[in-house]
Amino acid sequence: MPPPVSHSHRLFSFSLSEDCLCRRLVQAACGTGARDLVLGVEQYCCDRPNPILQVFYVAIIGGTYFIIVQSSFKYIPGYYVSVLHRYLSIVVVSIGAILFVLTSFSDPGTITSENVSQYVSAYPFDNIIYVEKECSTCKITRPARAKHCRICDRCVARFDHHCGWMNNCIGEKNTRYFVAFLVWHFLLCLYGAIILGFIVAGELKDKKVVYILTGYYSVRSKSSHSSNRNVFSCYI
C-alpha cells in the first residue's frame, strides 16, 4: 500500500494526466498535437528537476494576495472585520511561504554511503515487505522504506513522492513540513473565504441592501394582495 501522502498526491496531481479517457478527450477536442504538447509540458515541469512550478506557486500566491489587497483592503475595517486583519493576513501568508521554502529546500533524507548504516539501523528489514537490496544506481544498500528517486537521482529515506511544486522529494526529514504546508494552506483558504464573506455582509448592512430589498418585496407583496382583493370584489 502506498504512503497516504503519496497516494493523495498521485490522485490529485497525476490521475487525470494518466487517464486514457482524459487523453482521448484532449485529443478529440484539440487534436494529437495538442495532446502531445500538454504531455510534453507536464513531463518538462514534473519529470525533471525544474523550478517552473515553484515560480508558478509564488506567482499564484503573490498575485492572489495583491488582488485581495487592491480590491478588499479598502473595506477594512468594516462592520464585521477589524483593522487587525490587514496585518494578520500578512502573517498567515508569510507562514505559508516559510513552510513552502522549508519543504522545497530542506534535505528530504538523502542516503549516501556515509550515512546508509544509520538508516539501515533506523529502518530494519522485515524480510516480508522490505527485503535487503542494493540500489542499482547508488550502489549502496537501500534501507527499508527508502526509494531511489529517478528525478533527483538519489536515494531518499522513507520516500513518499517527488513533488514538482516543491522541486524536491518528500521524505523522512521534510514530510512534516509538507503536511504542515498543506494543512496551513487549507486553513489559509478557509480564513480568506470567511473574511471575504464578512466583508460582503458588512457592506450589505452598511448600504442597507437587505432592508431595501425587504421593503421592495414587501411593497410588491402588498400591491399584489391588494390587486387580488380588487379583482375578487369585482366578481362579487
TrEMBL record:
It is found in: Membrane. One of its GO terms (biological process) is protein targeting to membrane. InterPro entries: Palmitoyltrfase_DHHC, PFA4/ZDH16/20/ERF2-like. The keyword RNA-binding does not apply. The chain crosses the membrane at residues 55-75, 87-105, 177-201. It comes from Triticum urartu (Red wild einkorn). This is S-acyltransferase. Keywords: Acyltransferase, Membrane, Transferase, Transmembrane, Transmembrane helix. The DHHC domain is required for palmitoyltransferase activity. Its EC number is 2.3.1.225.
